[in-house]
Amino acid sequence: THTHTHTASSKHHHQEQQINMSELPDCFYPSHPILICPNSPTPNHSLYLSNLDDQKFLRFSIKYLYIFKKSISIDTLKCSLSRVLVDYYPLAGRLRTSPEHDQKLEVDCNGEGAVFAEAFMDFTADEFLEFSRKPNKSLRKLLYRPVEAHSFLDIPPLLVQVTNLSCGGMILCTAINHCLCDGIGTSEFLHAWAHFTTNPTTTDLPITPFHSRHVLKPRNPPPVSFSHPGFTKTTPKDHSQMDLDLNQYLQSQPLVPTSLTFTPSHILHLKRQCVPSLKCTTFEVLASHTWRSWVKSLDLPHALNVKLLFSVNIRERLQPKIPQGYYGNGFVLGCAVATVKELVNANLRQGVKLVQHAKSSLTDDYVKSIIDLLKDKTVKTDLSTSLVISQWSKLGLENLDFGEGKPLHMGPLTSDVYCLFLPVMDDFDAVRVLVSVPESVADKFEYYMKDFSNSEDNGDANGHCGEENGLICE
C-alpha cells in the first residue's frame, strides 16, 4: 500500500517505512463467526427510517477501530452485547426495502442478531500503534465480511470483530450501519455496551435509546420552502453543460491518505488570523483551513463553484427538540459555497464566515425543508465539487472503556475522500485531520495545511512552517 509519510528522524522514517510497506499478519479465526441475539424477547415490527436515515449518501457502515492494552474475555463481551441488543434491538434486525416505496428502506426488527467474529493475530499493541499511524488497506482484515453478503441490504446492521493480540491486548472493530445511527448514535450504543460489560448486574442505561424516527417525518404535503445548495436532482445529463465532476475525478485517481495532527497551539495560531473581528470555534477555523488547502492543492479553474459540506447536529435545533437518546441520523450537512478564486484569494477569515453562515442558516424551518425535499428520491447530496467533513472528535468515542482502561488508539478502519476530524488520545482539544487526496497533490496539500501564515499579508502560501512549527504530519 502506498502511504505518504514525513518524519523528522531518518532512522525513525526507515523503521516506519518498513512497517508501512508491510502487510498486517493474517487473522487466525479459531471458530466461525456467530450471531449474537438479544438475550430476552424484543419487539418484532418494522421500524420506519426517516428521510435523513435512508439517503443514498449514507448507505454504508461506519467502521471504527480500537486498540486496547488489555483484552476483555470474549465470553464477557458476547454476554454484554446480547444484553445491550435488548435495548438497541433494531441493530439485531435486518434492513429491507419498504413495501410502500422501492427507494425507501426500513428495518425488519426480527432479532436475527449481530455478527460477532473472534480472531487472533500474532502482533503486539505497540507494533500496531506504529503500523496504524497511517491507514493501510490491510487493516480491513480486522473486520470480518460476511461471504454471503452481495449487496448493502445483505449486510447485518452490526458487525463486530474482536482480535486478541500476542501481547495480551485486543483490537475491537465495529461496523454499524449508517442508516440506523449517526456518529452520536454509534457513540451512545458503544458506551451502552461498555456500561453493561462493566456493570453486568445493572438493568439501566445512562441514556435510554429512543427508537421512533417519526419525529423526523416530512410534512404533508412537503412544502420545500428554501433553496438547498447541498443537494442536486438526478436528471439525464445535459451534455451542453461542461460540468466538472471533481468527485468522480478524485475517485478515479490513485489516492493516498494524509494525516495531520493539530495541537491546541496550532489551532490558536489559526484563530488569531480571525480575531478580534471574528470569534470562531475550533471546528469552524479548521474546516475553513482544510477546505482552502484542499482547493489550492487541486489547482482548479478559478470560476468553478466549490462546496464544503459538513455534518451539523440538529437535535437541539428543531422545535420541539429531538428526544434525548435519539440514535438515528440527527444531523444534516451544512453547505458553504464559493468560487475557487474567492476562496483562494481571500483570507482565512472569509472562509470561516462562509462556514458560520452555513451553520446559522440551519434553522428549524430550513431543516424541516431539507426533510421535505428528501421525500423526492431523485434528490441526492451534491458531491460533484464538494469536500465533505465529518467530525468524530468531541463525540466521546475515544473514552470507550470496557473495564480495562481507555483505548490506546481510536480511528477509522480506512481512509477515503471524505475528510474526518478525529480525536487525539489524551488531548481533548487536539484534532487529527485525515483525508485521502490524489497522490500527485499530497505534498502540496500537506504544504498548505502546514502553512500557518496569513496569506492576506504574505501573498499566497509563502510562509511555510513545516516541522519548525511542530505540526505533526504522519
From TrEMBL:
Q: Which domain of life is it from?
A: Eukaryota
Gene3D superfamilies, per the entry: Chloramphenicol acetyltransferase-like domain
Q: Which UniProt keywords apply?
A: Acyltransferase, Transferase
Which InterPro entries would you find in this protein's record? CAT-like_dom_sf, Plant_Fungal_Acyltransferase
> Which GO-annotated molecular functions does the record name?
omega-hydroxypalmitate O-sinapoyl transferase activity
Which EC class heads this enzyme's classification? transferase
Family indicated by similarity:
Belongs to the plant acyltransferase family.
**The protein's name in its UniProt record:** Putative omega-hydroxypalmitate O-feruloyl transferase
Q: Which organism is it from?
A: Davidia involucrata (Dove tree)
